[in-house]
Write a structure and sequence with these properties.
A hairpin with a 6-residue loop joins strand 2 (28-33) and strand 3 (40-48). By secondary structure, this protein is α+β, with helices and mostly antiparallel strands. The protein has helices spanning 10-22, 53-63, and strands at 2-8, 28-33, 40-48, 67-71, 89-93, 96-102. Bound molecules: ligand 2BA. The site of ligand 2BA has 13 residues, from strand 5.
Length: 109
Protein backbone atom coordinates (compact mmCIF):
# COMPACT_ATOMS: atom_id res chain seq x y z
CA UNK A 1 0.00 0.00 0.00
CA UNK A 2 1.00 3.62 -0.58
CA UNK A 3 0.12 6.76 1.30
CA UNK A 4 -0.56 9.62 -1.09
CA UNK A 5 -0.52 13.19 0.17
CA UNK A 6 -2.11 15.43 -2.45
CA UNK A 7 -1.84 19.19 -1.95
CA UNK A 8 -4.43 20.87 -4.14
CA UNK A 9 -6.14 24.23 -4.43
CA UNK A 10 -9.35 24.71 -2.48
CA UNK A 11 -11.14 25.54 -5.74
CA UNK A 12 -10.48 22.01 -7.04
CA UNK A 13 -11.27 20.11 -3.85
CA UNK A 14 -15.01 19.50 -4.39
CA UNK A 15 -14.54 18.16 -7.93
CA UNK A 16 -11.67 15.88 -6.95
CA UNK A 17 -13.51 14.56 -3.88
CA UNK A 18 -16.55 13.79 -6.05
CA UNK A 19 -14.39 11.91 -8.56
CA UNK A 20 -12.61 9.99 -5.78
CA UNK A 21 -15.93 9.02 -4.20
CA UNK A 22 -17.24 7.82 -7.57
CA UNK A 23 -14.20 5.50 -7.85
CA UNK A 24 -14.51 4.33 -4.21
CA UNK A 25 -11.21 5.81 -2.96
CA UNK A 26 -10.96 6.23 0.83
CA UNK A 27 -9.80 9.75 1.62
CA UNK A 28 -9.16 12.11 4.52
CA UNK A 29 -9.36 15.83 3.81
CA UNK A 30 -7.20 18.25 5.78
CA UNK A 31 -7.31 22.03 5.75
CA UNK A 32 -3.77 23.27 5.13
CA UNK A 33 -1.89 26.47 4.39
CA UNK A 34 0.80 27.00 1.77
CA UNK A 35 4.07 28.09 3.34
CA UNK A 36 4.93 30.49 0.51
CA UNK A 37 1.67 32.30 -0.24
CA UNK A 38 0.20 31.73 3.25
CA UNK A 39 -3.15 30.96 1.64
CA UNK A 40 -5.47 28.10 2.47
CA UNK A 41 -5.16 24.95 0.40
CA UNK A 42 -6.39 21.38 0.78
CA UNK A 43 -4.35 18.31 1.59
CA UNK A 44 -5.86 14.92 0.86
CA UNK A 45 -4.51 11.79 2.51
CA UNK A 46 -5.24 8.51 0.75
CA UNK A 47 -4.21 4.92 1.44
CA UNK A 48 -3.99 3.40 -2.03
CA UNK A 49 -3.04 -0.03 -3.36
CA UNK A 50 -0.29 0.06 -6.02
CA UNK A 51 -2.65 -1.01 -8.82
CA UNK A 52 -4.88 2.03 -8.17
CA UNK A 53 -2.13 4.69 -8.22
CA UNK A 54 -2.51 5.27 -11.96
CA UNK A 55 -6.25 5.89 -11.64
CA UNK A 56 -5.66 8.30 -8.77
CA UNK A 57 -3.03 10.24 -10.73
CA UNK A 58 -5.42 10.51 -13.68
CA UNK A 59 -8.28 11.82 -11.51
CA UNK A 60 -5.97 14.44 -10.00
CA UNK A 61 -4.75 15.54 -13.43
CA UNK A 62 -8.30 15.75 -14.76
CA UNK A 63 -9.70 17.83 -11.90
CA UNK A 64 -6.85 19.98 -10.54
CA UNK A 65 -5.92 23.00 -12.61
CA UNK A 66 -2.87 25.25 -12.70
CA UNK A 67 -3.66 28.88 -11.93
CA UNK A 68 -1.71 32.03 -11.30
CA UNK A 69 -2.07 34.20 -8.24
CA UNK A 70 -1.32 37.90 -8.40
CA UNK A 71 0.74 38.64 -5.32
CA UNK A 72 2.15 41.89 -4.03
CA UNK A 73 5.85 41.60 -3.18
CA UNK A 74 6.05 41.35 0.60
CA UNK A 75 3.07 38.98 0.79
CA UNK A 76 4.94 35.72 0.34
CA UNK A 77 6.65 34.39 3.41
CA UNK A 78 10.22 34.69 2.05
CA UNK A 79 9.86 38.22 0.73
CA UNK A 80 11.36 41.34 2.13
CA UNK A 81 8.90 44.07 3.17
CA UNK A 82 7.43 46.09 0.31
CA UNK A 83 9.85 48.21 -1.66
CA UNK A 84 8.40 51.52 -2.93
CA UNK A 85 6.95 51.09 -6.44
CA UNK A 86 7.02 47.29 -6.23
CA UNK A 87 4.98 45.58 -8.96
CA UNK A 88 2.58 42.69 -8.32
CA UNK A 89 3.96 39.30 -9.33
CA UNK A 90 2.21 36.39 -11.03
CA UNK A 91 2.89 33.24 -9.02
CA UNK A 92 1.96 29.90 -10.66
CA UNK A 93 0.13 27.47 -8.37
CA UNK A 94 -0.69 23.82 -8.97
CA UNK A 95 -2.46 21.82 -10.51
CA UNK A 96 -1.40 19.55 -7.64
CA UNK A 97 1.59 18.43 -5.62
CA UNK A 98 1.67 14.69 -4.85
CA UNK A 99 3.84 12.83 -2.37
CA UNK A 100 3.68 9.04 -2.73
CA UNK A 101 5.06 7.15 0.27
CA UNK A 102 5.42 3.43 0.85
CA UNK A 103 3.42 2.24 3.85
CA UNK A 104 4.99 -0.42 6.11
CA UNK A 105 1.78 -1.27 7.87
CA UNK A 106 -1.90 -0.42 7.51
CA UNK A 107 -4.17 -1.52 10.35
CA UNK A 108 -7.79 -0.77 11.15
CA UNK A 109 -8.92 -1.65 14.70
P1 LIG B 1 2.64 27.60 -1.35
O1 LIG B 1 3.80 27.24 -0.48
O2 LIG B 1 1.74 28.70 -0.88
O3 LIG B 1 3.19 27.91 -2.81
C1 LIG B 1 2.33 28.38 -3.83
C2 LIG B 1 3.11 28.52 -5.14
O4 LIG B 1 4.13 29.50 -4.97
C3 LIG B 1 3.85 27.24 -5.53
O5 LIG B 1 2.97 26.42 -6.28
C4 LIG B 1 5.03 27.76 -6.35
O6 LIG B 1 4.67 27.97 -7.72
C5 LIG B 1 5.29 29.12 -5.72
N1 LIG B 1 6.41 29.06 -4.78
C6 LIG B 1 6.52 28.31 -3.67
N2 LIG B 1 7.67 28.54 -3.03
C7 LIG B 1 8.32 29.47 -3.77
C8 LIG B 1 9.59 30.17 -3.64
N3 LIG B 1 10.40 29.94 -2.60
N4 LIG B 1 9.91 31.08 -4.59
C9 LIG B 1 9.09 31.33 -5.63
N5 LIG B 1 7.87 30.74 -5.81
C10 LIG B 1 7.51 29.81 -4.89
P2 LIG B 1 3.10 24.86 -6.20
O7 LIG B 1 4.52 24.43 -6.37
O8 LIG B 1 2.08 24.27 -7.12
O9 LIG B 1 2.72 24.46 -4.69
C11 LIG B 1 1.39 24.54 -4.21
C12 LIG B 1 1.38 24.23 -2.73
O10 LIG B 1 1.85 22.88 -2.54
C13 LIG B 1 2.32 25.08 -1.90
O11 LIG B 1 1.70 26.29 -1.54
C14 LIG B 1 2.58 24.18 -0.68
O12 LIG B 1 1.46 24.21 0.20
C15 LIG B 1 2.62 22.80 -1.32
N6 LIG B 1 3.98 22.38 -1.68
C16 LIG B 1 4.61 22.56 -2.87
N7 LIG B 1 5.84 22.01 -2.84
C17 LIG B 1 5.98 21.47 -1.62
C18 LIG B 1 7.04 20.74 -0.98
N8 LIG B 1 8.21 20.45 -1.59
N9 LIG B 1 6.86 20.33 0.32
C19 LIG B 1 5.68 20.60 0.96
N10 LIG B 1 4.65 21.26 0.40
C20 LIG B 1 4.79 21.70 -0.88
Amino acid sequence: MHLVLAIIQDADAAALLRALRAQAFDVTKLASTGGFLREGNTTLMLGVSPDRLGTLRQLVQDTCHARTRLVMPGTAITDQPDAPGAEPLNVPVGGAVLFVLTVDEFVKY
